[in-house]
Amino acid sequence: AQSVTQLDSQVPVFEEAPVELRCNYSSSVSVYLFWYVQYPNQGLQLLLKYLSGSTLVKGINGFEAEFNKSQTSFHLRKPSVHISDTAEYFCAVSPTGTYKYIFGTGTRLKVLA
Amino acid sequence: DAMVIQNPRYQVTQFGKPVTLSCSQTLNHNVMYWYQQKSSQAPKLLFHYYDKDFNNEADTPDNFQSRRPNTSFCFLDIRSPGLGDAAMYLCATSPAGQPQHFGDGTRLSIL
After folding, report:
1. Less Cβ around it within 10 Å: N or C end of chain A?
2. Considering just the CA atoms, what is the radius of gyration of chain B in Å?
């Protein structure tokens, strides 16, 4: 079975400061990794994905994430946040060869002026 | 633009009164998913279709059913909604082995 842990339920950060949202996963099989963002009353939007290849993945809106296989982590980073980045962020894994996605419980990023 | 469309965006129904939520896609993806998301929680997978093959999650209540009459459309039927079924329902699609594309969801309220 797979599981995804997002230890930080809320992360407040000042505008233009850097941010890191943490994601750790557990799986006995290889997985694909994803970060999604959800704005209020909307669906989830894909930020970035790791399928294979380079462990540093760049996504939309200036976000990037690094896959660390030994630490089973896939932390999301942005060097300088904007007020508009305030949203819920979900990490997800999908075991390769399946159509299942397992989501973490989400991290609410609140960017302060 | 190709997209995933959920109707309606907001649905109010009475306790025990059947309700149907709909999802359509123009992406021609062969996999479609239904998720339930309660406030401040992760989306919970209810079921998914690979083409016409239906896959139910083990903990999805029998009260929840789904239909996929063709590639473009998928429906979620809640036969006898209870107060605990009030939630956001998200539809998603994906090509096999690729990231999901989500609709904006239907927020279901139960009176």
Report:
1. C
2. 13
